[in-house]
UniProtKB/TrEMBL annotation, chain A:
GO terms for molecular function: hydrolase activity; phosphate transmembrane transporter activity. The chain crosses the membrane at residues 20-41, 61-88, 100-124, 130-150, 191-217, 249-269. This is Phosphate transport system permease protein PstA. It comes from the Bacteria. It comes from Defluviitoga tunisiensis. The gene is pstA.
Length: 279, 288
């Protein structure tokens, strides 16, 4: 008995130590990125163009570019993901077509982002003639976001009690009336959480945007959806890789800002998830 | 047929049409990427998979991707060696030993980590970690070790949370009976629960490996980029994903080089598709 207990406390000690080291390393990484970059924050940083080979000025156009992209992506991927999730949960479980769509969505969630980039490049930029543009980039990222939203919506709907559907049917509601008026409102919080987490991921995506939508430096703001765009993550990438020590501050400051933005989105998502659990 | 029936029918059709987009995208991915790969596959021949000489801009150019394929595999292997045990240890700790408070903060922190974009991890490694690794003996700021650290950080949330889920999904009474029979917590968790959760854990491993092999930006930033077969962890590597991302901007559309990069994409797409299907079968076999 003693031996068993000592094995247990030893393993527990080792595993706890490793977990704590990992935990503190994550906190350390987040803190270094945020604090070391936030030193450079000042109002002009958020509004101005980069100046003098990225050694001065700000990231105004990259912030704007990321916001436009995320708005467009949500506009496309929310209806697509929502209805796909509805299909998988409410229609798809038994039929052959449902199984195929299920496999398709699962496979899409595993495809590397760079492969989506290649696909977007040949389909949107070249074949459809959208070029390197906001539109090509947003369409590519929307497709990437589809499986994330679809599988969360499906989970949210599957988790709803059967009685909810049955009582709606018993009252004479049609199937799609039940879906749109009862089920989706009932799963609303989980769906919003999924959309927020999806946005948090997609706003930091770099590789597909490099291939389909990004411009390294632009002196004017995009005027149409067919213009290329600066985004926060591609801006960080370009500065880190192609500029010297003089420009490093801007990569650090942009990383810090982007990380803060994503943390805020995640914290809101976690908060909603917590409320939903408490109800 | 009244108005409500019509509306119901229309809504149903819309749902079906939208859901169909998923299939279109999968088919489109394969069609377009295979189509663009064909010139390289037919003109370069099988040398593209078996030669280590990748000199796409020389005259005559050479398009051997073996060094990059091996680069991807070594990077994935090394990172898995770090992240899979680490993920298991953390998930085991959370499942077996952690108190409620520890569970809560460690799980949320790992969830947060999954939101950090790879470009930020890449920049972090580039500015703060690369200089340290250089002091340890690396001769290039980007190398196998730094890239593996990056991939470990990025894939840890997948490994840890998926494994934790599979451990937690095992019936609690199994663990309790083992404890009641006098097994230690470690034995109950390791020999009984882990064994019962083995298909879930296998699935976590597959999904984590899939995530590592497709990761692009971190390896583009800190793997060093030399298309050679590395001999030590301090050597630079150029995995497939990094080659695509860094060279695509410079090739002319329709050239052989362009097509060869799509072939690299085709390799990645095929690997991810196979891994996802295996994972789906593993789960399917368990639940049915």
């Amino acid at each position: 008995m003693k031996k068993k207990q000592s094995v247990d406390s030893l393993v527990s000690l080792i595993f706890r130590t490793i977990s704590y080291i990992t935990f503190f390393s994550i906190i350390l990484i987040i803190s270094i990125v945020i604090i070391d970059g936030a030193r450079f924050f000042k109002p002009s940083f958020f509004f101005e163009y980069p100046k003098k080979a990225m050694t001065q000025g700000g990231i105004g156009p990259a912030i704007l570019g990321s916001l436009i992209m995320i708005a467009l992506i949500l506009l496309i991927s929310i209806p697509l993901g929502l209805l796909t999730g509805v299909f998988l949960s409410e229609y798809g479980s038994k039929s052959l077509i449902g199984k195929i769509i299920d496999i398709a969505v699962t496979s899409l969630s595993g495809v590397p982002s760079i492969v989506y980039g290649l696909f977007g490049l040949t389909l949107f930029s070249i074949t459809l003639g959208f070029g390197t543009s906001i539109l090509s980039g947003s369409l590519t990222l929307s497709i990437m976001t589809l499986p994330v939203i679809a599988s969360s919506v499906r989970e949210a709907l599957v988790a709803l009690p059967r009685e909810l559907r049955e009582s709606a049917f018993a009252l004479g509601a049609k199937k799609t009336e039940t879906i749109f008026k009862i089920l989706i409102p009932a799963g609303k919080k989980r769906i919003i959480t999924a959309i927020l987490i999806g946005s948090g991921r997609v706003i930091g995506e770099t590789a597909p945007v490099l291939l389909t939508g990004a411009v390294f430096y632009s002196t004017k703001l995009p005027t149409s959806l067919l213009d290329p765009v600066m985004t926060l993550p591609t801006h960080i990438y370009f500065i880190t890789m192609s500029y010297g020590v003089e420009a490093q501050w801007m990569a650090k400051a942009t990383s810090s800002f982007l990380l803060i933005l994503i943390l805020i989105i995640y914290l809101i998502a976690f908060q909603i998830r917590k409320e939903e659990k408490n109800v | 047929m009244n108005w409500r029936d019509v509306k119901d029918g229309v809504n149903k059709t819309v749902i079906f049409l939208f859901a169909f987009v998923g299939i279109l995208v999968v088919v489109g991915l394969f069609v377009f990427i295979i189509k663009e790969s064909i010139p390289a596959l037919t003109q370069v021949g099988k040398e593209i998979f078996f030669s280590i000489y990748w000199y796409p801009t020389y005259d005559p150019p050479e398009f051997g991707m073996l060094a990059m394929i091996i680069g991807s595999l070594i990077l994935t292997g090394l990172s898995s060696l770090f992240v899979l045990p680490l993920g298991y240890i953390i998930s085991f700790f959370l499942y077996n030993y952690a108190n409620t408070f520890e569970r809560k903060i460690i799980k949320s922190t790992i969830d947060l980590l999954s939101g950090i974009p790879s470009v930020i991890i890449g920049t972090f490694l580039f500015f703060y970690v690369s200089p340290i690794v250089m002091k340890l003996g690396a001769w290039s700021p980007g190398n196998l070790l730094t890239a593996s650290i990056g991939l470990t950080i990025l894939s840890l949330p997948y490994a840890a949370s998926l494994m934790e889920e599979s451990l937690s999904s095992v019936d609690q009474s199994l663990k309790e009976s083992a404890l009641a029979l006098g097994a230690s917590k470690f034995t109950a968790g390791f020999k009984i629960v882990t064994k019962e959760a083995s298909s879930g854990i296998l699935n976590s491993i597959i999904l984590t490996v899939n995530r590592i092999i497709g990761e692009t930006i971190v390896v583009l930033m800190v793997a060093g980029g030399a298309a050679i077969i590395p001999k030590s962890i301090f050597d630079p590597v150029r995995p497939l994903t990094a080659a695509i991302a860094s060279e695509m901007g410079e090739v002319s559309v329709g050239s052989l080089h362009y097509s060869a990069l799509f072939t690299a994409g085709l390799i990645l797409l095929t690997i991810s598709f196979i891994l996802t299907l295996i994972s789906k079968t593993v789960i399917g076999g368990k639940t049915k």
